[in-house]
């Protein structure tokens, strides 16, 4: 089923990220989850479940290929980071770390400021 929607190379890349324990799931004290994926050159923030019913895109990743392949050219449904988060979450293969509310806010602030 996965193969019909996603290229083999993306599935292999996602499995590779999970193997390297590259999916980090931050857990706040109030039960919110925040996902980060270590790419080869940078760390990306992934939102696997956007609650936006009006768009075709149900997930979001801060990597450049998500912007190009998913949002602009619409060639792919997701990038390897989103896929890695979905699979790692389902298989309980995320690296789970607690995070303070203030630290989470700092992370978000870091993404919106220039
Ligand atoms: Zn990505």
From TrEMBL:
Claim: Disulfide bond is one of the keywords in the record: no
Residue intervals of the SWIM-type domain: 44-90
GO CC aspect terms: Shu complex
Native organism: Suillus discolor
One GO BP annotation of this record: double-strand break repair via homologous recombination
Zinc-finger keyword on record: yes
Key words, A-Z: Metal-binding, Zinc, Zinc-finger
Protein name listed in UniProt: SWIM-type domain-containing protein
A GO term for molecular function: zinc ion binding
UniProt xrefs under InterPro entries: Znf_SWIM
Superkingdom, taxonomy of origin: Eukaryota
């Amino acid at each position: 089923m996965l193969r019909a929607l996603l290229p083999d190379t993306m599935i292999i890349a996602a499995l590779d990220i999970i193997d390297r324990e590259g999916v980090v799931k931050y857990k706040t004290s109030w039960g919110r989850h925040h996902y980060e994926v270590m790419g080869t050159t940078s760390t990306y923030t992934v939102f696997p479940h956007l609650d936006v019913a009006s768009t075709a895109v149900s997930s979001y990743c801060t990597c450049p290929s998500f912007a190009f392949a998913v949002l602009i050219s619409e060639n792919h449904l997701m990038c390897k980071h989103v896929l890695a988060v979905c699979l790692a979450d389902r298989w309980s293969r995320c690296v789970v770390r607690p995070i303070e509310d203030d630290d989470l806010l700092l992370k978000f602030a870091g993404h919106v400021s220039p």
